[in-house]
């Protein structure tokens, strides 16, 4: 994802070069020369793990919130994901929840691995995509079709401006930031519909929603597209 979009904010120079080389060597990616700064300011880049943490805390989620990361390998590994964990220690993924033996059967089947993340994303109490990739759009549409659970799509362009003020020292994390972020997203959350408002009762045939999923789901940044 980062190599494809040219989003390198927060990465080291060597990491940015690695992604650039990856993009240049991928023949079916037509756009090679990408301005990372313009991509980010335009709201076209995924939120970083640190930004996801700041966003969720500003939206009122507490440290006790369980977060499931539906993604492949996170670029940069724990060096970056630890910043999100500092906000929300109950941070899990399929690798944490499942045993090695359980995941072994999916080892050579990337689409099936993605399906695990997809199912949990659809069933989660809250779905918060950090970027608008194909999977995120599919999950949001599926959840809307089923008429359940809340989906909150971050205003990445607006958040980048606020996070820029934080970097300049013109704003600090706390009540002021929380007020600005919640106001910005007042109408961006798609609330769950009542049972009598479901568009299709048969839509639940393959999804037994009798038990609530305790995990709020969020995407984070992955090096793969």
From TrEMBL:
<dbReference type="Pfam" id="PF10250">
    <property type="entry name" value="O-FucT"/>
</dbReference>
<keyword id="KW-0119">Carbohydrate metabolism</keyword>
<keyword id="KW-0812">Transmembrane</keyword>
<comment type="pathway">
    <text>Glycan metabolism.</text>
</comment>
<dbReference type="GO" id="GO:0005737">
    <property type="term" value="C:cytoplasm"/>
</dbReference>
<keyword id="KW-0472">Membrane</keyword>
<comment type="similarity">
    <text>Belongs to the glycosyltransferase GT106 family.</text>
</comment>
<keyword id="KW-0735">Signal-anchor</keyword>
<dbReference type="GO" id="GO:0006004">
    <property type="term" value="P:fucose metabolic process"/>
</dbReference>
<keyword id="KW-0328">Glycosyltransferase</keyword>
<dbReference type="GO" id="GO:0016020">
    <property type="term" value="C:membrane"/>
</dbReference>
<keyword id="KW-0294">Fucose metabolism</keyword>
<keyword id="KW-1133">Transmembrane helix</keyword>
<dbReference type="GO" id="GO:0016757">
    <property type="term" value="F:glycosyltransferase activity"/>
</dbReference>
<keyword id="KW-0808">Transferase</keyword>
<protein>
    <recommendedName>
        <fullName>O-fucosyltransferase family protein</fullName>
    </recommendedName>
</protein>
<dbReference type="GO" id="GO:0005634">
    <property type="term" value="C:nucleus"/>
</dbReference>
<dbReference type="InterPro" id="IPR019378">
    <property type="entry name" value="GDP-Fuc_O-FucTrfase"/>
</dbReference>
<keyword id="KW-0325">Glycoprotein</keyword>
